[in-house]
Specification:
The complex is a heterotrimer of chains A (about 475), B (about 130) and C (about 450).
Chain A: H1 11-14, H2 51-62, H3 85-91, H4 94-97, H5 109-126, E1 130-132, H6 138-155, E2 162-166, H7 172-179, E3 183-187, H8 197-203, E4 208-214, H9 226-235, E5 239-243, E6 263-265, H10 268-271, E7 286-288, E8 300-303, E9 309-312, H11 329-365, E10 381-384, H12 386-392, H13 396-405, E11 412-413, E12 422-425, H14 433-447, H15 451-455, H16 468-473
Parallel strand pairs in A: 2-3, 2-4, 4-5, 5-6
Antiparallel strand pairs in A: 1-7, 6-7, 8-9, 10-12, 11-12
Helix pairs in contact in A: 5-11, 6-7, 11-14
Chain B: E1 7-8, E2 13-18, E3 21-26, H1 28-34, E4 37-41, E5 48-49, E6 54-60, E7 63-68, E8 73-78, H2 81-84, H3 88-91, E9 100-104, H4 116-125
Antiparallel strand pairs in B: 1-2, 2-3, 3-9, 4-6, 5-8, 6-7, 8-9
Chain C: H1 8-18, H2 48-59, E1 69-70, H3 83-89, H4 92-95, H5 107-124, E2 128-129, H6 136-151, E3 157-160, H7 165-174, E4 182-185, H8 194-200, E5 207-212, H9 222-231, E6 235-240, H10 251-254, E7 258-262, E8 278-282, E9 295-299, E10 305-309, H11 316-319, H12 332-370, E11 374-376, E12 385-390, H13 397-405, E13 409-410, E14 413-414, E15 421-425, H14 432-454
Parallel strand pairs in C: 1-13, 3-4, 3-5, 5-6, 6-7
Antiparallel strand pairs in C: 2-8, 7-8, 9-10, 11-12, 12-15, 14-15
Helix pairs in contact in C: 3-12, 5-12, 6-7, 12-14
Classes of the chains: A alpha/beta (about 475), B alpha+beta (about 130), C alpha/beta (about 450).
């Protein structure tokens, strides 16, 4: 299907000196003489192409991607749900797409009204008191929240140096802790895939600033010990941070604030259907309990005395900014449209159906592949190819690559680290029973295939498996003219 | 397969006493676990290292592992050939793929290191 | 309404197969004590028609450069975006794809990012570029953390006082709990005097950060500054404006070790501050410390050229707490937009755009001075933006902005350091009529202000 494309040449290889696309006619104004120490000799050596060249180039390239719009994409932990088209149309209205970020508040009242309501809705869904929309993505949200925690403890005169992170956590958790100036300490998972309470307790003390937990966790399990966990952390004076990557499982069902989290981030591009945009942009708002609100990034949207909205810049205890300007507004607007479309019942339905779909797919697959911690999964589950690898020399990667041949994007592989040969599967609520059944059939048929066929997969895509070792040993990171 | 004349650390480094310095490398077991080695970061000559603490890193395509100093001392030499071709370590871990030479500290001891037999037992148990 | 495909009879059949009576039974592991026993307090659901009319109403309450001629800049600019950028980047195959971890199913995105990296290298004259960061503010912070990691120095980080205040604020936030102090070099003349840097930089300085053109729009003595920094072994970080490089020397030629920029001007609408596009490039020797995603060229098993994510061991998902950066997403879709934008401009289009910005900005400055509205705050060469000090009889900058709204102008950004200073940007999008109309409207405020004072 992908071989119909005319060419996979690089832009630079189709360039022809003198060819033009966009033109900017002369202004008619006199030339301005800048000193030669500032001026380059000529323009940078960019490619020279015609408009049709561009259109074919990018159209052909786009056909070499799998995407939600074209394929089932059960990539665990990424929540690859349908991205509504109405959002794309509405965010491109000039009143939303064009305002300058520093326009006077009174000229952007519609924008501020939306962002204010978004802050309120996200605080309500979290069961927390206040929300900052500034962080650009989940990882920046984590960092911002940990900086808030650091500022809070400093304000109270407490010297707490450690952040505890479960071994099943996303890599961003320990990386964010390090930048925020904390030592990160790993807490083990028990055999059931949940936090090992004894290990947690042995590591909790007066040095603990924050315990970061993903709940439901990366195995797709809701940690039923959560009230115990959060109580223990609070008893030692620490704060509980919830990594909201898996919020799609509990919208309107359980709220992090109600189960003891003091701070959390959202991934608007996951839970509230971003979209993902080939790797970004994201948006990672953070919600916090009341005592932490003064430390949130600035500015925040507040109501003024006259019933209008304004940006509150003067917040003396705030950690400051984690980026220039307000935040990833375009993504926030889409998230707001999604929340307004769904309403309270629709939000709850998202989680109910996401969990139903995951459990249904698990039921279809569990007799064919080992799912070591699958009992009672939420919105996703983690299968393991460990036995297959031992018996048939078929790895998680082989299965993933063969699924691509069959028109399915692969699950997340080799994560979380606590499951060997992991295949992490998240169908999301927007897929139908028929899609799940077809996927399961194909998955099972792959397990029965000759191992050699799997080792060589994919067979039918634009390329076969790339040589990653060569790409890393002698990295070629840009095109150079011959 | 683990040469008998070498000493071994739990963290999978080998040590060969050679005059007043010790040659250090990674064991075959470690190299096989790491699969295709793509890059090695080593300490600089003159740097002090502490036994049991990290002194460098070894990378494969999708993993990074620490290299631990097997003893206290000062780096006397590093294997420059590895910066050109890290796969030397995979091809010849006990020979051309050596990592560094350490000049042991005055009170530096080697008696915490294992014999080839003990080390083989450790890795087979793993 | 929640985009659910399964019908209620399907849902029942699925529950039956799972062996559960109701959907509620699927949530048994969530303790009763923490379950929410009421509906969320969010507004009720809207149909597509209702949502469309609500959004149209709220969007209508925002003024914007489509109905006001925009002379605002300060890090976000009203540059023209060719239609091909919108059309091609909005293809669902780009918009609804994930990070290209599965290379075989993501050659489209991977090739675009490889081309993006190349385009940024061509533009800047640097050796290597990553596949983008969030935006310039956090980009500056990432560059400083990278420099600390490369040099292992913990002396004060030196940053020119003429760097965008939001970038400086972001750097302070990121560095709040890390060792090096941040020392802002004051620039009374509106640019960083090389002698000032010479006096401050030491063998313990991890890096020097300079923005050129700077926050005021003025040009800095970058070549000399980078030489001074490097003489002490400090890395030189330059914040640049991509569109200025149609005429100005690039960071590569000026000696930057790390170059960072806001890429919004390359095909990204201003959308009230984001999403934007952080650009970052560096010298070849620093690539292992470069944060963010990188795409590399390789071959597949049949020897066919292809692209994959490269040097992933730098990143947080592998290096965890030892990673130089915690960044996980890039701005994929906006890197795609910037690539299309740069390719559409080509070398000539970029040069024409830069020349128009330069000429139109100087034309406006000339008109304002001729009409005795005021004077340029610091006499320095500038590119597309200048800091204008309002003369006697003129209202303060914020009031000028306020009063020109009625006349159809977004008049500029009041300068944070002086209420009499207005930061004015002129892009290629402004017509000569708008420029002249703006100069007239601004000078008209002086007349009325004068009368008011006389009463």
């Amino acid at each position: 299907m992908m071989e119909r494309n005319q060419s996979a040449d690089l832009l630079f290889e189709i360039s022809k000196p003198g060819r033009r696309c966009h033109r900017v006619p002369p202004s008619g104004l006199p030339a301005v003489g800048l000193d030669s120490r500032f001026l380059s000799g000529g323009s940078p050596p960019l490619p020279e192409v015609a408009e049709l060249d561009l259109v074919r180039h990018y159209t052909n390239l786009s056909a070499r991607n799998m995407a939600i719009d074209s394929n089932f994409y059960p990539l665990g932990s990424c929540t690859m749900k349908y991205n509504p088209k109405r959002h794309e149309r509405l965010v491109s209205l000039p009143g939303l797409a064009s305002p300058h970020p520093l326009q006077p508040d009174k000229t952007v009242q519609g924008m501020l009204a939306i962002l204010f309501e978004m802050q309120e809705m996200l605080a309500e869904i979290a069961g927390l008191h206040a929300c900052s929309l500034q962080p650009s993505a989940g990882a920046q949200g984590e960092l911002a929240a940990l900086l808030v925690a650091a500022a809070y403890f400093r304000h109270r005169g407490e010297n707490r140096t450690r952040v505890l992170v479960p071994d099943s956590a996303h890599g961003t958790n320990p990386a964010s802790a390090a930048i925020a100036g904390f030592d990160s300490v790993t807490v083990k998972s028990g055999d059931d895939g949940l936090v090992d309470l004894a290990d947690l307790e042995s590591k909790l003390d007066e040095r603990t600033a924050v315990f970061m937990i993903t709940n439901p966790n990366t195995l797709g399990l809701f940690d039923h010990q959560i009230l115990d966990i959060t109580r223990k952390v609070h008893e030692k004076g620490g704060l509980v941070y919830l990594d909201g990557a898996n919020m799609n499982a509990i919208l309107g069902i359980a709220r992090p604030g109600d189960f003891g989290a003091d701070m959390m981030h959202y991934n608007v591009h996951k839970t509230f259907t971003g979209p993902h945009g080939a790797g970004g942009p994201g948006s990672g708002p953070i919600a916090v309990r009341d005592m932490l609100e003064p430390f949130l990034p600035s500015p925040m949207v507040i109501r003024d005395e006259k019933g209008g909205y304004c940006l509150q810049q003067d917040r003396p205890l705030s950690i400051g900014r984690v980026r220039a300007f307000f935040g990833n507004v375009g993504v926030l607007l889409r998230g707001w449209m999604y929340l307004r479309t769904l309403g309270p019942n629709g939000l709850r339905e998202v989680s109910e159906q996401a969990v139903l779909n995951a459990n249904y797919l698990l039921t279809l697959l569990r007799d064919h592949i080992d799912v070591p911690k699958g009992a009672g999964c939420m919105h996703e589950f983690v299968a393991s190819a460990k036995i297959l690898r031992r018996e048939k020399r078929v790895s998680a990667m082989d299965i993933a690559k063969r699924l691509l041949d069959k028109g399915y994007h692969s699950p997340t592989v080799y994560f979380p680290l606590v499951v060997a040969e992991a295949l992490m599967i998240e169908p999301t609520e927007t897929e139908s029973q028929e899609t799940l059944e077809r996927f399961a059939e194909v998955f099972v048929s792959i397990l029965r295939e000759d191992p050699e066929t799997l080792h060589e997969a994919p067979h039918d895509l634009a390329i076969s498996r790339p040589d990653e070792v060569a790409a890393t040993k002698q990295p070629v990171l840009r095109w150079k003219s011959a | 397969m683990n040469p008998k004349d070498l000493k071994y650390a739990k963290s999978h480094e080998w040590v060969r006493v050679d005059g007043d310095t010790c040659v250090v490398g990674l064991t075959r077991f470690a190299v096989d676990q790491l699969t295709d080695i793509t890059y090695i970061e080593l300490p600089k000559v003159g740097e002090r290292v502490t036994g049991g603490e990290g002194m460098g890193e070894v990378e494969s395509v999708k993993a990074v592992s620490d290299i631990y100093a097997p003893l206290d001392g000062e780096i006397a030499a590093v294997n420059d050939a590895l910066s050109m071709d890290a796969s030397l370590v995979s091809r010849d871990p006990y020979g051309e793929g050596w990592l560094v030479r350490i000049r042991p500290a005055k009170d530096g001891r080697l008696d915490h290191l294992m014999s080839a037999e003990e080390y083989t037992r450790q890795t087979e148990g793993a | 309404m929640s985009y659910i495909a399964n019908t209620s009879s399907q849902q029942e059949a699925m529950l039956g197969k799972i062996g559960k009576k109701s959907v509620a039974d699927l949530f048994e592991t969530v303790p009763k004590a923490v379950r929410l026993d009421r509906p969320l307090r969010v507004p009720p659901a809207l149909s597509e028609m209702e949502l469309t009319s609500l959004v149209a109403k709220l969007a209508g309450r925002n003024r914007h450069p489509g109905d006001l001629a925009c002379f605002m800049g300060a890090g976000a600019y009203d540059h023209f975006i060719p239609a091909v950028v919108d059309t091609l980047s909005s293809r669902g195959e780009f918009v609804t794809a994930y990070t290209p971890y599965q290379a075989e199913a993501s050659q489209g995105s991977l090739q675009v990012f490889f081309e993006f990296q190349t385009l940024i290298c061509q533009l800047t004259g640097m050796d290597v570029a990553n596949a983008s960061l969030y935006e310039a503010g956090s980009g500056v912070a990432e560059a400083v953390m990278m420099a600390m990691s490369v040099t292992s120095r913990r002396g004060p980080v030196l940053i020119a006082g003429t760097v965008h205040p939001h970038y400086l604020a972001t750097l302070r936030t990121y560095m709040a709990n890390l060792e090096p102090e941040i020392r802002v070099l004051h620039c009374p003349g509106g640019y960083l005097e090389p002698s000032r840097l010479e006096a401050e930089v030491t063998e313990e300085t991890p890096c020097v950060v300079v923005q050129h053109p700077n926050f005021d729009g003025s040009l800095e003595e970058v070549a000399e500054l980078s030489r001074i920094a490097k003489a002490k072994g400090a890395l030189f970080v330059q914040v640049f404006d991509p569109l200025s490089l149609g005429m100005l020397k690039g960071p590569g030629e000026l000696g930057a070790d790390i170059a960072v920029a806001e890429g919004q001007g390359l095909g990204t609408p201003m959308s009230f501050g984001g999403p934007y596009l952080g650009l970052m490039a560096c010298r070849e020797s620093l690539v292992r410390k470069l944060p963010g995603r990188l795409v590399g060229q390789t071959v597949d098993r049949k020897g066919k050229r292809c692209w994959v994510l490269a040097l992933q061991t730098r990143e947080q998902h592998i290096r965890r707490e030892k990673a130089t950066s915690n960044i996980c997403t890039n701005q994929g879709l906006y890197a795609i937009r910037a690539s299309i934008h740069l390719a559409a401009l080509g070398p000539e289009g970029l040069r024409e755009t830069a020349r128009q910005c330069l000429e139109k900005a100087h034309h406006l400055r000339h008109l304002l001075v001729a009409k005795k509205v005021g004077e340029i705050a610091h006499v320095r060469p500038f590119f597309k933006e200048f800091r204008f000090r309002l003369g006697e009889g003129m209202p303060a900058a914020a009031e000028c902005v306020d009063r020109l709204l009625e006349k159809g102008f977004l008049a500029g950004v009041p300068h944070p350091e002086n209420p009499r200073d207005l930061l004015i940007a002129v892009t290629e999008s402004r017509t000569l009529e708008e420029i002249e109309g703006f100069a007239n409207a601004l000078s008209a405020l002086r007349a009325t202000a004068g009368k008011g004072a006389g009463q």
